[in-house]
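Quick one: Aldo/keto reductase from Streptomyces albospinus, structure tokens please.
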Amino acid sequence: MKYRRLGHSELDVSAVGLGCMGMSIAYGPADETEALGTLDRAAELGVTFLDTADAYGRGANEELLGRWLRRRDRGTVVLATKFGLWHDPASGRVDRVDTSPAHVRTACDASLRRLGVDHIDVYYVHRRAPHVPVEDTIGAMAELVAAGKVRCLGLSEVSPQTLRTAHSVHPISAVQMEYSLFTREVVEGEMLATCRELGISVTAYSPLGRGMLTGSLTSRDQLTEDDNRRRWPRFSPDNLDRNLALVRSLTDIAESIGCTPSQAALAWLLAQGDDIVPLPGTKRVRYLEENATAADLTLTTEQLALLRAAFPLDAVAGDRYPQQALDRLGH
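--- reply ---
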């Protein structure tokens, strides 16, 4: 595994990280034994950068990682988590965002308990509450750094201006954004330019388009009834066929390279700069191994251009989130 320095921090993270959300929620039934085995294999492969959040299963994903960490060397893992999203107890869905200073402190202590650790390596604002000045939120997070509870700070799905303001209060090491061949417009342009001006890394979630870019999905019938993607616009009956046609082009290019569609998509993302760290999520060893191998794949200029051209920005059908979730982005 290759490693990349995370922004202004002193943390070196695996070039390909591991998103842990799907081990507990969102993509079908959870299997703890399988998830723990996948985490063990990640450690063997040198995949050290693990990403979770207090919102994933309302703390269940952090608790899962905590059980795994109890039998590992904490120093070999770069652990990232997030705070700020509240779930409605009845529906289980996010119904508000709280980034107040009081909640910053409460949420951090709760995450530390669930994870069973004395510090969090990267602590993100999961979503920003626009009525709370970001200076207040980051000021409270900076106190966590001073107290030794957090090593470095990050934000997720914010505007470039919010990122600049936050960075003026305390150095920001990472901004987490959705970024893939399927979703480029939210990063490329002002956000990426701002990150590079300020020396901030981009940690890219959903780098495989929530599984669309793996080439393994051919029908909505493959999605279980409790799979969140059934609510996502790009997986709707009206949009899925159009999007799968784009993926078939990716599959053809990957075959010509001699790799899988997932590996081609991740290698393309890695080639966008050493300040980009993809976080493909999986709960299965075979996909973890496939994804990790992408770090060793070097694409030619021609191959990179072919991959970009296969996904024109106006060709992807559907928004990346349902409207309620879209309303929480970019503040």
